[in-house]
Give the backbone structure.
Amino acid sequence: MFSLHKSYPLVRPLLFSVDAETAHELTLSSLQKAYNCKLTRGLVGARALSHPVTLMGLPLRNPVGLAAGLDKNGAHIDALANLGFGFIEVGTVTPLPQDGNPRPRLFRLPRAQALINRMGFNNEGLDVFIANVQKSHWREQGGVLGLNIGKNASTPIQQATADYLKGLEAVYSFADYVTVNISSPNTKNLRDLQGQDELTGVVRPLQEKRRELADKSGRRVPLVVKIAPDLTPEQVDVIADVLMRHDVDGVIATNTTLSRGAVQGMPHAQEAGGLSGPPVHELSLRVIARLRQQTGPGMAIIGVGGIASGQQACEKIQAGANAVQLYTGLIYKGPRLVEECVRALQAL
């Protein structure tokens, strides 16, 4: 019988025969169509992958999640959840719709099983995003959903906090946790927000807003911050200190890298943007280990960046992560990677 999990190696050459962004859009629309039809839903879905863990007080079916960026508008939550993930994160969403950077802006580096993207937070804005999230049934079925917020490219970096506050207020009621993305390399000066004063200037008002929203709703939604892999140990220490002082619940480590050392000389290696896939794995491990050393056991860490095997998922956990997320590995290995990672973590 046809199964997407088994047949993806046959499908991949067809997808790789068109440009990366077109393939991305085609994959999502095909997954959605298959999910919408009850006859085909089971063929693209995974068996229930159970390895229950608790993350920030949230019960996960398993600790293997989908990273933000694959479904920027939250339009395919249920179809993606059907692949066996323990939790799903969608976005990054900005207050206003924006086109992102000009195409082409997504490039494959097959020799390294990597991608370079300079998408630039292309999305349809908060109103469409929230309408899409409300249509999904994943949370009703006990799934955990993270909503990832960013700032508009046209918003000056000095006013970034206002965009994050708009985002938090808008998504709060519909999220199991909210991620503050301050680490995309594709929005000008965004990574400057990882400095001590700048990060404090974002996190402190967000925490005040969260307290206000929690009081109104009677529900405290965990807040996490997504950081870059291109940080010195001293910079990681500063971030850990700020997040602990302001009672942030967790960190996603890490986003894409600007480093090109591991892909030097490969076609597209010098394209501008963030590099994802296996070249990020070691960078991410170093950040995770340093964060865990600085924060102790109390802070949740979600390890992401370069997981292309169950072994690499285990290495993230061994470095100090509580859960992991996948993205680029799915492009190269397909949805069987989800099961491979869950099984490896069960064995661990």
Summary: DSSP finds twelve helices and 13 strands in the chain. The chain has one domain: 4-347. The two ends are 31 Å apart (CA to CA).
